[in-house]
Amino acid sequence: MGKCVAVLIFILLAAKISGSGEALAETRQIEELTVTSTAAPVYPPIARAANVQGEVIVSVSVNPQGDVIAALALEGHVLLRKAAESAALKWKFNSLSQTSNTRVGQITFSFKFEFEEAVEVKDDIIFAPPGRLELIHKVPTILSIQKVNGRIPEENCPMHGERMRLGQAEILYGLPRAEFGHPNDLAHIWQNVWQKIRRRFSYYEAARKHFPESNLLVWGGCQVGVVKKSEMLYCQRCRNAELKWRKKSILAKGLALMR
Ligand SMILES: [Zn+2]
Predict the structure, then answer these.
(1) Are residues 157 and 130 part of one domain?
(2) Of 15, 32, 37, 62, which one has the greatest count of Cβ atoms within 10 A?
(3) Given this model, what pLDDT does residue 19 score?
């Protein structure tokens, strides 16, 4: 955010105390705080993870040069306070040449987040005079591929030797069904045979053998995340093989999609 001009009015109540010790009068002095530059807070990852949104009101003390010398959160969620205070310390106000008073003002920070179906996102930062700043933190729902020196890694399909292309795949969350062996008694022989049949016609067995780099689906572990898709590399010939398998395999519709 560039130079923004707004006015924060603050009221300084100063009690004048007479030489005899009696409080005689209060003088009310009004001075202006003009915001010359703002800084947005960083959305704390822990607050994001805990779905915490809201406002934090920060009291700032400003020296004659316009620097914030102290920032203290007065209200707001505890997980957001520190980020708001850190940002407030970076704000700049107008300088005063004639007085050496420390001025006091308030900044309100609003923390929100939104999901965006994109790989690269940019936060919205809105300054609303006189002293309010809204941070709309964008959370991408598509995971970016791990780049090598800022570039997409070059890989070939081990099966087809073809250069892999950059694409996106749905993430499946959950744990794959564990393979387990039954005791070799008569009662469990059928169970073992059944496991073998399942494996033989399962999607993952077919993927392993016929289209290892199709990557139409990727595993996301046991966490249920907000990330729904991931960038990844895929082999077009593997994808063709998978689509063919899906069409051809009679069992695909029934048995084969069992994990
Ligand atoms: Zn391939």
Answers:
(1) no
(2) 62
(3) 37
Whole-number Å distance between alpha carbons of 33 and 191: 77
Q: How far is CA 54 from CA 47, 80, 107, in A?
A: 10, 8, 14
Count the alpha carbons within 13 Å of 56 in the hemisphere toward its beta carbon: 28
| Interval between CA 211 and ligand 1 midpoint (Å) | 6
Ligand 1 mean position, distance from CA 204 (Å): 15
- Do 104 and 197 sit in the same domain of this protein? no
Angle between helices 236-248 and 203-210 (to 10 degrees): 140
DSSP for residue 96: -
Does residue 90 contact residue 63 with C-beta atoms inside 8 Å?
Answer: no
96 and 163 share one domain: no
pLDDT in tens, 154-169: 999 999 999 999 999 9
Q: Is the domain of 178 the same as that of 226? A: yes
- Residues within 5 Å of ion ligand 1, judged at the Cβ atom: 157, 159-160, 213, 235, 237-238
**Statement to judge: residues 135 and 185 lie in one domain:** no
Q: Quote the ligand 1 centre to 239 CA distance (angstroms).
A: 7
Average pLDDT of the residues of the chain: 81
Is residue 164 domain-shared with residue 129, that is, in the same domain? Answer: no
- Contacts with 209 (C-beta within 8 Å, 6 or more apart), sequence order: none
